Amino acid sequence: MWGHEDISLTSPPYRRLSRDVIEDVNGEVIELRPCARELLSFLRDRGFGLAVASWNLPEPAVKALEALNLLEYFDVVVVEPHPNKELMLREIMSVMRVSEGEVVFIDDNPYITERVSRAYPELLVLRFGVDVTDYCVFLEEVRRALGG
Q1: Is 140 part of a structural domain of the chain?
Q2: What digits encode the pLDDT tens for the residues 5-35?
Q3: 71 located within any domain
Q4: Would 24 be classed as within a structural domain?
Q5: Nearest to residue 49, comparing CAs of 99, 100, 109, 103?
Q6: Are 53 and 83 in contact (CB under 8 A)?
Q7: Which residues contact 7 (CB under 8 A, 6 or more apart)?
Q8: Rounded to the nearest 10 degrees, how much is the dihedral formed by the CA atoms of 49, 50, 53, 54?
């Protein structure tokens, strides 16, 4: 969602610079990718359940989501300091009571997308930067697909 390489390396508390930009106590800037908020809002408004599966330290990741006022969009937030997102997805699917065929997973890490694809062959796995090159373009594709 944000363009920062590793949110775990930042230091809360965060200060909001604008609607989609925060900085940590050391001046490290974290900027939401263009159209990320609009995509979340569009999906939320249409009744889609949304979740986070994040390989990060929980404190900085959750505090960054809070500082950007993004937590309100998500039904489930799972942030754990390991790359096993297939385990995080198991928890998310259980809490949300959905099957893998009802889930779309987006991640920028090819190692993780491969692991998730192997663990859940019916789940739609998209790689950010490859399948989803830009949230603005993806939002328009989703709008067209949903007729809105």
Answers
A1: yes
A2: 999 999 999 999 999 999 999 999 999 999 9
A3: yes
A4: no
A5: 103
A6: no
A7: 30, 56, 60, 61, 64
A8: -170
The reply to whether 27 falls in a domain is no
- pTM of the model as a whole: 0.95
CA 30/CA 56 separation, integer angstroms: 15
Total tally of structural domains belonging to the chain: 1
- Which residues make Cβ contacts (< 8 Å) with residue 82, sequence separation at least 6? 55
Amino acid residing at 137: V
Residue 141 is part of which domain span? 34-146
Q: What angle do CA 34, 87, 49 make, to 5 degrees?
A: 45
Alpha carbons 89 and 99: distance in angstroms, whole number: 10
Q: How large is the angle between the packed helices 85-96 and 110-119, nearest 10 degrees? A: 50
* Length of the chain counted residue by residue: 148
CATH code of the domain in which 81 resides? 3.40.50.1000
Token pair listed for 117: 């694809």
